[in-house]
Specification:
Length: 486
């Protein structure tokens, strides 16, 4: 144990930079990222990359249509090939480009052969995970041409995990394997693939859609870096999705608990497990924009003063409900306890849940991406095998902030806005950090915009009144502007 600690201490000055697919979508983006790495990193730092642009989606479509529509599959195949080759040709010198094209075409031939096999976990993961390999190899070659000593590394060489709905990294095995590469390339920037790991059989394991952030924090925790910066196409974390809400504003500081809850609620800006690997460490986490590095950022702070204030409105239009309706003779509390133990053991907690003791009903809300896999796992529990079903076409809208559920003003405003919406149920977190509504619709854009407008205007007045310390003025504003919500 002491040896491991000593090894980690040697790498404490290291930083890790993670770049998402939107930061690597075209030639200009790759050059921009190379400049950021040159300016913001030093020898020995780690760079984790996602697949370029929409490569992962293209690979999924290629695989999908290879079995049902060969003409369409051929179009996806050609699109992937030309996109990757175009990046290589335009970013590298002729000699280096020819070499990387050979590597790419060798990979591509391998994937074409795999498409002739039955599609199982092994084949699917091997094909879909290749975007990260191409991205890391190319990024490392670009850095070399920038005069930056670099080495690309396939994360499957050291990250170990087994197939499941939420693959968990074997930290002990992974740390031991990673150590030799850190020693070997201690004076280089290591460009590492995100999203992929390997199991004991040597098969590729995917760490979940948008799992590169999770890869980054996991690798950062394994190496004991002192700071992780996640770069994307937005400046940081906003009060709402800035692509949906024009008035959303940047949050320069967010508490660890608030960020963790945002991730748990499957917000697009944070992968659901991004914060897990670093929750018990002192690693700093920051979010910045690769398109405009100096515009601003969001820092995740371990301790922030609690003020029962709203920070974020988040939504997800692709969630499902797993429903378990027990028979009259079944002991509801006993079954519910067994389900909870199962979910805890497998770390597959729902986004929200509803328990109706009278109707012996349990509803568990998950993203569409993982719902089918979790339902399959739950159906293995013998006592609920015949009682379980899946309903889709739901959405989730939530407000997040430390102690938000104890602030009656925000709660009432939230409930009032949802009074005419098809609400399936409301739920709030145990720590009172989020209030959630699950809706039987998948169109929440207008609702989110209106909620943001009202809640953050209310926040503005709330802060103004506290500054003035005038209760009369405060309640006057509430009565005149928000009489509907009180």
């Amino acid at each position: 144990m002491n040896k491991i600690k000593k090894k980690i201490i040697r790498y404490q000055n290291r930083q890790l930079h993670k770049f998402g697919g939107s930061s690597l979508s075209d030639v200009k983006c790759y050059k921009r990222v190379a400049n950021i790495i040159e300016k913001c990193s030093k020898p020995g730092d780690l760079i984790v990359v996602s697949a370029a642009g929409i490569t992962t989606n293209q690979l999924i479509n290629w695989l999908k249509f290879s079995k049902i529509n060969h003409n369409l599959a051929s179009k996806f195949q050609e699109s992937i090939r030309s996109y990757q080759e175009n990046l290589i040709i335009k970013l590298l010198s002729k000699k280096k480009a020819n070499l990387l094209k050979l590597f790419f075409l060798s990979d591509f031939t391998h994937l074409i052969k795999l498409l002739n096999k039955p599609i199982d976990n092994c084949v699917y993961s091997e094909i879909v995970g290749h975007g990260e390999i191409w991205s890391a190899r190319l990024m490392s070659a670009i850095l070399e041409e920038f005069g930056i000593s670099s080495q690309w590394l396939d994360a499957r060489l050291f990250l170990r995990a087994e197939y499941s709905s939420h693959p968990k990294i074997d930290e002990i095995a992974s740390r031991q394997l990673l150590e030799k590469y850190l020693q070997k390339y201690y004076n280089k920037r290591l460009v590492i693939t995100g999203f992929i790991a390997k199991n004991k059989k040597g098969q590729t394991v995917l760490l979940g859609r948008n799992g590169s952030d999770y890869s980054a924090t996991q690798i950062g925790a394994l190496t004991g870096v002192n700071k992780i910066t996640i770069w994307s196409d937005v400046v940081g974390i906003y009060s709402a999705d800035p692509h949906k809400v024009k008035d959303a504003y940047l949050l320069p500081l967010l508490s660890f608990d608030e960020a963790k809850e945002l991730a748990r609620l499957a917000a697009q800006v944070l992968h659901s497990r991004t914060l897990q690997p670093i929750s018990s460490t002192n690693i700093d986490l920051q979010f910045r924009c690769s398109y405009d590095p100096d515009k601003g950022s969001t820092k995740i702070a371990r301790t922030v003063e609690s003020n029962k204030d709203i920070k974020i409105i988040t939504s997800n239009d692709n969630v499902c409900l797993i429903e378990i309706i027990l028979f009259k003779h079944q002991n509801f509390l006993k079954v519910y306890k067994k389900i909870n133990l199962f979910l805890k053991k497998n770390q597959i907690f729902p986004l929200a849940e509803r328990v109706n003791l009278k109707n012996k009903l349990i509803q568990l809300c998950y993203t569409k991406e993982v719902a089918h896999g979790i339902m399959y796992e739950l159906s293995k529990i013998a006592i609920i095998k015949k009682n379980i079903s899946l309903r889709d076409c739901f959405s989730l809208v939530a407000i997040v902030g430390t102690g938000i559920c104890k602030n009656s003003l925000y709660k009432n405003c939230f409930y009032q806005h949802l009074r005419n919406q098809p609400v399936e149920f409301f739920w709030h977190s145990k720590k009172d950090i989020s209030l959630v509504a699950v809706l039987s619709t998948n169109k929440t854009l207008y609702l989110v915009r209106e909620l943001h407008k009202s809640l953050f205007l209310l926040k503005k007045y709330f802060k103004l009144t506290l500054l003035n310390k005038s209760k009369i003025n405060f309640f006057y504003l509430i009565r005149t502007k928000y009489f509907l919500y009180i």
